[in-house]
Amino acid sequence: MSNVVITPPETTRTESAPSEQPEVAREIVFEAKEVRVRYGGVAAIEGVSMEIAAREITALIGPSGCGKTTLLRCLNRMNDLIPSAKVEGELTYHGIDLYGPKVDPVEVRRRIGMVFQKPNPFPKSIFDNIAFGPRLMGKRKGVDHIVEHALTRAALWDEVKDKLKESAFALSGGQQQRMCIARAIAVEPDVILMDEPCSALDPIATAKIEDLMEELKQDYTIVIVTHNMQQAARTSDMTAFITTNVRDDGTRVGSLVEFTETSKLFTQPSDPRTEGYITGRFG
User: Do residues 163 and 125 make contact, with C-beta atoms less than 8 angstroms apart?
Assistant: First the structure.
């Protein structure tokens, strides 16, 4: 980073501690306090306060248009690319103000990778797709190993190792999405954001992505936006329910209703709006 270097604290990856040992405190990666996002002066989402912990999967659920993707894009400053967008409140990453004047948004997006709703391969070979980020960072040696490692972590190496020079567009939709995950991994991020990563995939490909997420959370913090409540229930550790409120003037704005352990949210929600949404009474 050209100005401020955001360096996650060193951690040691270990297996889960035996049950008789005291529970290890959760390492907080993101902390949001009263975050609000405006587009052209109109609030899209407001009043978001939550903590996202390391090496957990956090799901954002809620009806269409409630601001889930807007909130997700705050976490790696993707909203900076929209001229009318303004993020207010406090949002920290490992205790550092993510929107501080000396923080380089390009470096933020390297450390906090993004996987989009639809697979978006570059018009290049499979190899060059994965190698693109490391090369952009100036790496020239060891690129072959980086590519193999990323594809292996994305559970794709065995399927593509003999056709790395072929176009990425020759892959199936599910393979393309896993390749995009590998492309994000190749630059050694700390966090992976996923915006409806399975919405364009069939059930078999979706199951592979979900299995991959469960494996990747051993080393990465994952935040996923999903309309699929079953997917949130299957894959996530924590779930945030966001909904849209209608103000007195008729304008609509998204707000965080409830954020808790996934098992609790789906079995014992504390807000009737959450219960109404997950039981299908509205939304």
Answer: no
User: If you count them, how many residues does the chain have?
Assistant: 283
Options 3.40.50.1820, 3.40.50.300, 1.10.287.40, 3.20.20.450; CATH of 29-116+192-278: 3.40.50.300
The span from the CA of 120 to the CA of 205, in Å, is: 16
**How far is the first Cα of the chain from the last one, in angstroms, to the nearest whole number?**
42
Q: Find out whether 11 and 26 touch, Cβ atoms under 8 Å.
A: no
DSSP letter string, 159-174: HHTT-TTSBGGGS-HH
> For the chain, what are the domain ranges?
29-116+192-278
pLDDT in tens, 181-230: 999 999 999 999 999 999 989 999 999 999 999 999 999 999 999 999 99
0.90 surpassed by pTM: no
Sign of the alpha-carbon dihedral angle for 18, 192, 65, 92: positive
